[in-house]
């Protein structure tokens, strides 16, 4: 495998296993099935029909969820915390951050933790990546629900007739994937849903005035037949998007709703994710409308750029800059070009769609806005900007794949295992840590190797039950505490925690 990483750094976290590994998926999604009699990897091998350790089909990793200790009988349906057994980071090369658009995996060790392209510009998520996505989705949904938005689901397929009615089929045709059914009716895989959501609202008839502002959102896949693909999730043909559409009775009400959702976006990025970002004026493009703003994450390896004024805090995107526009009337000395990655976009649409589809109230067309956050794009941008090197993945605390990791003692330290299990039991009682504890019991690997691998996964708090614990076990057992931080690949040794300090300390984090 080529280990060089170019400057195009949309990072992807890989944990590599044999390509032939058989994994048994249980009813809890990511949990891998394990029956009551399975107490070792040999039992899992038996379940997969392969018991020969030397066979290429012998499973080299399995995982399950449990609320009990790692050596006791476990309930597969409990989700208190996770175990990853025999997950073989054989050496430092097994955990890589790579630039997906510049490399092709040549190694047969191709089981990924975060992302693996099915083909050009199409990606799959394994369980670590899916956990990050789920956490981001939860943050977004919590904030949107708090302002009275309603989650819906709309079809991916869109009829050509519907798009033609809005007058956008020709404008989008080169960017859309097309298909036909048995009756030769034409459809597209929709890159956006303004037509469909407006048609949906129009079909409800005239609603009560108290319904407005009506804010509808969804989180799902979008499709664009991009001419130029690459940069991992930043430019792909299938992508995950949160899109919200609002409907109001008057232009002033629509402007107020636009401000409300914009403030919610700022709360998501600033308060919940704790990141710096720019809001700049933008071109509405094929979406249309009267006004548009983009949200940009500053990133030295960014794929976008903005012109920003440090004096009045106004900015414009690259498209407007190319047209000769300026962000403000301030002197040129205050205006700089900033490398960024676009992470969200908002539009004031007016009655552009509602007039065509008959979505109205009191005989007047409703006034519409739309808003979008690129889920995969945002995650890729955060990793790209917060991971200082190719050694380790870093994300905001709210999106870390797990909040706490516990590294169990080696096989030779069996006397400390019961103590370790007790620590895990205490942590699992903390409500904020439910399903957020990572237990590394790859006992055939050294503690140092597991500590480094866990830190490279971006888990912010790491507890090690190791040599120091064993030496103090009969008196006052201690646990080594480490942490990781965004923008740094350093593993920070905080110190030792006594047994009665662990739960109290972690609960305060």
TrEMBL record:
It catalyses: tRNA(Pro) + L-proline + ATP = L-prolyl-tRNA(Pro) + AMP + diphosphate. Keywords: Aminoacyl-tRNA synthetase, ATP-binding, Ligase, Nucleotide-binding, Protein biosynthesis, Signal. GO terms for cellular component: mitochondrion. The keyword Protein biosynthesis applies. It comes from the Eukaryota. It is an enzyme of class 6 (ligase). Its EC number is 6.1.1.15. Residues 129-396 form the Aminoacyl-transfer RNA synthetases class-II family profile domain. GO terms for biological process: prolyl-tRNA aminoacylation. Transmembrane segments: none annotated. GO terms for molecular function: ATP binding; proline-tRNA ligase activity. Pfam families: tRNA-synt_2b (PF00587). Residues 1-26 form the signal peptide. This is proline--tRNA ligase.
């Amino acid at each position: 495998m080529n280990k060089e990483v170019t400057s195009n750094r949309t990072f992807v976290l890989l944990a590599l296993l044999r390509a032939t590994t058989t994994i048994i998926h249980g009813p809890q999604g990511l949990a891998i099935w394990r029956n009551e009699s399975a107490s070792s990897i040999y039992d899992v091998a038996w379940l997969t029909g392969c018991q020969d350790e030397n066979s290429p089909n012998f499973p080299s990793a399995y995982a399950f969820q449990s609320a009990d200790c790692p050596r006791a009988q476990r309930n597969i349906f409990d989700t208190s915390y996770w175990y990853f057994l025999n997950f073989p980071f054989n050496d430092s090369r097994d955990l890589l951050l790579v630039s997906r658009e510049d490399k092709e995996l040549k190694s047969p060790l191709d089981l990924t933790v975060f992302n693996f392209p099915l083909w050009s510009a199409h990606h799959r998520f394994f369980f670590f990546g899916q956990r990050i996505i789920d956490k981001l989705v939860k943050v977004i949904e919590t904030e949107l629900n708090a302002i009275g938005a309603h989650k819906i689901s709309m079809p991916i397929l869109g009829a050509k007739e519907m798009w033609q009615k809005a007058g956008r089929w020709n404008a989008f045709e080169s960017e859309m994937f097309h298909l036909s059914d048995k009756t030769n009716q034409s459809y597209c895989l929709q890159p956006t849903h303004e037509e469909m959501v407006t048609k949906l609202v129009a079909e409800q008839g005239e609603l009560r005035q108290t319904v407005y502002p009506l804010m509808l959102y969804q989180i799902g896949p979008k499709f664009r037949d991009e001419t130029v693909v690459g940069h991992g999730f930043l430019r792909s043909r299938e992508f995950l998007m949160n899109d919200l559409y609002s409907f109001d009775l008057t232009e002033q009400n629509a402007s107020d709703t636009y401000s409300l959702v914009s403030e919610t976006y700022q709360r998501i990025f600033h308060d919940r994710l704790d990141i710096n970002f720019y809001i700049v004026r933008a071109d509405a493009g094929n979406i249309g409308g009267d006004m548009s703003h983009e949200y940009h994450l500053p990133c030295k390896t960014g794929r976008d750029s903005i012109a920003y004024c440090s004096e009045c805090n106004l900015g414009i995107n690259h498209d407007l800059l190319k047209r000769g526009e300026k962000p403000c009337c301030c002197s040129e000395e205050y205006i700089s070009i900033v490398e960024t990655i676009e992470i969200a976009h908002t539009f004031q649409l007016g009655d552009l769609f509602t007039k065509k589809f008959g979505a109205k109230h009191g005989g007047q067309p409703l006034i519409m806005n739309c808003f979008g956050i690129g889920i995969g794009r945002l995650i890729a941008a955060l990793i790209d900007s917060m991971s200082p090197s190719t050694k380790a993945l870093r994300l905001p605390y709210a999106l870390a794949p797990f909040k706490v990791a516990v590294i169990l003692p080696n096989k030779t330290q069996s006397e400390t295992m019961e103590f370790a299990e007790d620590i895990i039991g205490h942590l699992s009682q903390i409500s904020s840590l439910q399903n957020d504890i990572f237990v590394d019991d790859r006992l055939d690997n050294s503690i140092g190797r597991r500590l480094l691998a866990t830190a490279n996964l971006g888990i912010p708090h790491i507890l090690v039950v190791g040599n120091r614990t064993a030496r103090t076990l009969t008196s006052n057992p201690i646990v080594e505490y480490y942490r990781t931080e965004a923008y740094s690949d350093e593993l920070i040794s905080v110190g030792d925690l006594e047994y009665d300090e662990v739960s109290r300390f972690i609960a305060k984090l």
